[in-house]
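REQUEST FORM: STRUCTURE PREDICTION
Request ID: SP-0412
Submitted by: Lab K.M.
Chain count: 1
Length (residues): 111
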Amino acid sequence: AACRRGRECIIRALVRQHGTGHVITAGVLQPGLPQIQTGVSIPELYFKAIYFPEANVMKAFLIENRAYPKDVYYSDFLVSVDEIEALTGYDFFEDLPDPLEGHLEATLFRE
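STATUS: Completed
RESULT:
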């Protein structure tokens, strides 16, 4: 099947490059966000944190919730997993051995 959604295509490409990926995607929630009629908050930011165990690589993206022109690259939003954890208060990959978790979450994997 053809990949028709930009972010979905990027994740598929990363999986082809690094192997199996464990993906966490969510909005960054905080008090006072605007809400739709049903009371669901509309986050200003959302993130993806991805662990590729076969390659010992983590990728993380922090993205403002708005429309972007087609010439904006997903890599423009690359951050460390540590940055997202600091922003959200979550510890995403806590089951990894601490030395490995600490190294991977602090590293900004650009390739």
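NOTES: Residues 6-18 form the longest helix (13 residues).
Reviewed by: T.R.
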